[in-house]
Design brief:
The protein is mostly beta strands. The chain has one helix and 32 strands. It has an eight-stranded antiparallel sheet with strand order 10-6-5-4-3-11-1-16, with no helix packed on it. Strands 17, 18, 20, 25, 26, 27, 28 and 30 form an eight-stranded antiparallel sheet that branches.
Length: about 450
Amino acid sequence: MANTYLSRTQGTGNRQKFTYSAWIKRGALAEGFLFQGYTSTSSFVHIKFDGNNKLQVFGKTGGSDQMDLVTSRVFRDTGAFYHVIVAIDTTQSTDTNRVKVYINGVQETSFSTTSYPSVNANLEINVSGYTNYIGAQYGSQAYYGGLMSYVAHIDGTQELPTIFGETDATTGEWKIKTSITPSVAWGTNGFLILKDGNSLTDQSANSNNFTLAGGTLTNTEDCPDNVFCTMNPLNFQASGYTIQNGNNSIIGNASNTWRSLYGTLGASTGKFYWEQKINNNTDSSHIIGISDIDKMKNSNDNDFENTGTSAYGYRPDGAKISKNSLSAGYGNTYTTNDIIGVAVDLDNSKIYFSKNGTWQNSGVPTSGSTGTNAAYTIDADTTYTATTSTNAGNNYYSYNFGNGFFGTTAISSEGTNASGNGKFEYDVPTGYTALSTKGLNL
């Protein structure tokens, strides 16, 4: 989250050869530092996303640039994990071999800025008594906003991506290796942290533990081998919101104009459950529900969804709404601190809503094709995603798609979940699962 960063004081290591690897899921699309080896504000090495969402590898010593590589392509996907590797060996005679950047196992070869370090250059990394930062510049600015997992640093070798990941034989996609074995050794400053959780205890052969130097570190279920839905800041109407906490917390900032925000994952079959907590609600100008992903809003129209869109929702005044048609008296009213559950049965074309664990209108999400007291029979043969809409500024909501958190606050008591996929405040109806890559493949 914003203002969260880690630090560790370095020992004497190899200043010419090292490899940095991390699995990351971007949240805030802004300048953000992944890693920095720091000796002073004029002597450092960093790996970051710049303000144009390009990846930069930059080094400076004594105020003079040592290297500067900026990728030609941009990285704006907030719905998936990237695997980022920077592997350096300044002893190489060919300059292009001295810095190698890999994304998802493939080496980057096109750069908008290209300046390689000189042969045998000593970079500002692995310098005894100075600091490694993860997630910030100088530990005070340009914070990285998003998720990180399996963050590794190998001191002394320029490694290939195949020690960190591999190509899935079935899907052809790059996937994580949970056992990392460097070709030589981890080296003095080598480490592996954020492995299978938010632990800063080094899981390499060393004991190079990190410290939480600022902010809050949460243990999310969202990880490289099970990516969860979040709200998408790339949607056209996302400018109507401030989006935080890994894109799971949203604050309306467009008063008296309806804006809709959509999820990053959609489904056309299966049964899915998620929750939204009302952190602050000022009136009934809010809707929780689903929308057809093929007809998401691409303009700032002042309504929930137009009449040609498959969209279904539940309002704070207890009404339900579909395709711009409002039906009062569906369920109980809800307000600040209430938690609304959404159960979407795409196999039987039904949707149900709960308030604090109680299904509204006595709905029975497990009733299958009968659809006992479902809020709606929804349009079939349609791919849906989570949707929220509001026209009031300062309304604040947090989604739990299975991460086990509302913003930075953990759920208070985990409900039962037969699928074992995700952690929720209330019981997940039997047969339903989280909207995640694992859930989509159950």
